[in-house]
Amino acid sequence: MKMEYENGLLRMENAAGRRGHVANADKPPSAASPGQLTSDLKAFAYGLINSVVMRLGYDNLLNVQITGREGSSDLRAAEARRVLAYVDSIWNAYRGLAAQIGATPISDLKSLRDYANLFPQVPDMQHFTCGPAVPVTIESAATTSARKPSVPASERALEPSSGTVSLETPSAEAADFSRIIDRALVFDDFFSETHVHLLEQWALQTPHWMLTNSTHDELGRPLHRIWGASYIGAWQRAGWTGLPPILFSTVAAIFQKLNVTITAPRYIGLNGQSRGQDASIHEDCERDLAGEISILVYIGEDVDGDLILYDKDNSEQVLHRIAFRPNRVIAFDGSIPHQALAPTSDRFRMSLVIRGQYECRRSDLAASPAPSPEKD
Question: Nearest Cα to 309, choosing from 296, 322, 326?
Fold first, then answer.
């Protein structure tokens, strides 16, 4: 017997091919148990990994590990490391989904296909063999002459200036977050090329983008309106594992590398800016609020659009300009007045934003309990 359920309509088909339906039906329980779904999902994850391994001509995953080992001079070492980074992203996504399944009532479980479709897409094989593609923009002569010359991201420097806010560039392992007030820390090349590629694929194809990321002044007047996609509702319903798998994997990697955990997020989402969409000057939290941090992850195309940090006592005084650069992570005191400038080209400036209360500790997000429902 096959059954399909959609919006109160239960369709049935028996072994002989005879069909029927029941209107206004309750959703039937999932045919698979949580344990069976998790087991099948693990097999699916293995299948995704093995399909990449075999298509690239490796005998097995061990062969990939040997080829991509630290210090390897194998001609395919860089390719193998991209494969291993893909494996990390897949397994982190699996762990998030497995935890999500374990916390879902049996009657609300989705099908294996629904969960499998949430995995990061398999990149084109060229990504592994040649690395990430370099975006090419074709501009008309009129556009080019009207614009200031673009400086490649790799050549853009942080621009520190005098002021009470310190701008730091430590390694992720050496970063000290015991006190974040009046500090901004910048980390470049934070994720593997492969993980950034998977995150960009998901972010650009997510159906959640809306032109509703707005701020208003004390009189309710709009200050800016840019593209946004919020996932704080997903966290409030189901915790970290309720996030889309690649987003969960990204957050887990940030917390693991920086040795911090945001225990009570205020916002989780994507910000996007097209030309002309300068964000207004704003703060993420009350001034000098201890235990609050804002984290930005720059992804997408290589564009301009600096992050401007202003003096807390004089919002017209620029303290620092931090250039947009893909795969750059910025962790800072959210009470510092700041502003993200829009790109000057037709490319899309995109960032992941996570902010809220934090603690200096690593955490297994897959084992973290979901937040308790708010009481009226």
Answer: 322
| Three-state SS at 41 | helix
User: What is the number of helices (H) and of strands (E) in the chain?
Assistant: 9, 15
Instruction: Match 């007047």 to its residue by tokens.
Output: 221
Task: Give the domain ranges of the chain.
Answer: 1-30, 34-130, 151-365
Q: How far is CA 376 from CA 234, 373, in A?
A: 19, 10
Show Cβ contacts of residue 50 under 8 Å, excluding neighbours closer than 6 positions: 61
CATH of domain 151-365: 2.60.120.620
Q: Over the stretch 333-365, which tens digit does the pLDDT of each residue have?
A: 999 999 999 999 999 999 999 999 999 998 889
Q: What is the pTM of this model?
A: 0.78
Q: What is the DSSP string of 121-164?
A: PPPPHHHHHH-SPPP-----HHHHHHSPPPPPGGGPPPEE-SSS
